[in-house]
Amino acid sequence: MDFDALMLARIQFGFTISFHIIFPAITIGLASYLAVLEGCWLKTKNPVYRELYLYWIKIFAVNFGMGVVSGLVMAYQFGTNWSYFSDFAGGITGPLLAYEVLTAFFLEAGFLGVMLFGWTRVGPGLHFFATIMVALGTLLSATWILASNSWMQTPAGYEIINGQVVPTDWLAVIFNPSFPYRLVHMGLAAFLVTALIVAAAAAWHLLRRNDTPAIRTMLSMAMWMLLLVAPLQAVVGDFHGLNTLKHQPAKIAAIEGHWENKPGEGVPLTLIGWPDMSQEKNHFALEIPRLGSLILTHSWDGQFAGLKEFPRADRPNSTVVFWTFRIMVGLGVLMIGLAFWAAWARRRGRLYSSTPLLRFALYMGPAGLIAMLAGWFTTEIGRQPWIVYNVMRTADGVTRHGALEVGVTLALFVVIYFIVFGAGTVYILRLIGKGPHTDAPQEGGPGEAHTPSRPFSAAPDSDDIAAGSRTDQG
User: Fold this and answer.
1) Does residue 38 contact residue 53 with C-beta atoms inside 8 Å?
2) Letter string b/e over residues 264-278, b meaning 16 or more CB atoms within 10 A of that residue's CB
3) Could you tell me the pTM of the whole model?
4) Are 8 and 101 in contact (CB under 8 A)?
5) For the chain, domain boundaries
6) What is the pLDDT of residues 245-274, one digit of tens each?
């Protein structure tokens, strides 16, 4: 691998976006989870839902802050490292990112204060509405970001005038051919990420004999979500794969490690192997005959383009995407297995007491994030060598920096990110380790009972809520 300025710029962007994508995914899932918890509490008045809301809103607040900070870097990198791409495609990507700020981020920010600080200051209906608006804002944010990224994958609704992309049909730009599949796939991935984190937190507490109604409710809700979403994600992934085969056939060929078709034969599914880009073949391949045809063409003898049908300069790196895709799919299979195991244990009355199940749920905690990152790598590396598919090459979009300049900034990013976001992650894990409780003292700042002494202690504890409820009732 030649670590020139282009490769270093790609690694830098991949590194920063890999950190960033983690936090919005958790934010999307947690915001919806919090809306469900508050809705359940308002309907049933069961204090368990209130406990869980107060527990997870603190984790949400820290995660939201880290997502905002990490996201700022991405916008600057478009100008610093990818200025030629910004000049070429800014007529489309710029407005889409602006729409994200105007319709989504402002919505989140506007209601976030009410959500975090307004539990005892506004009525329950208004607070619930604020929580819903924050959840909606996170989904809207993902919608605009994925519209922009999907346009880069399957560009539509544009023409090139004087060397720049000019939109001719905004509906075609936004609802480009791959957008619906990516939006649903990413939204379900965010829910899976959150369900696995919630399940792992509950499993950790149950394994430590911290068996409370709130912990049990956490595990139960997470496993129901997993049982619903994990199989659905597999179905959506199949549709997404068929869409990719139609619009990005070279990416599918690279994912499958498929080099060429044999006359009259179906395409095998290569379970494992080592695609060799230079020798144009797979080493140590373990194949199932015709299964590749059955999955991708839904036909026993169907064929699709192999990598040899594309010029070498237009081929994605099969060695990388072959394995990132299999990591994603393998973890997805484990998620489905965990969901059905939990359903079986629930039926036998052992959901909260089966140590092997709880350990498996604990170990699967980061699986959603790993699978999501693996899928993201597959999508973005599989698009190469194009930054806008079949329109602009990645090499033509990078700013003409030297390798030393990009390398130094990459090293600084690595050090700073691991310090800042590592500390944030440790803090989140400490919050998770405390568990939901109702008897914690209110942490207030000097003078005022409701003035937070630290930014992330802003969310009220349940004693404060109970006091507020008695005041309202009195």
Assistant:
1) yes
2) eebbbbbeebebeee
3) 0.84
4) no
5) 21-247+318-473
6) 889 999 998 998 888 888 877 888 888 889
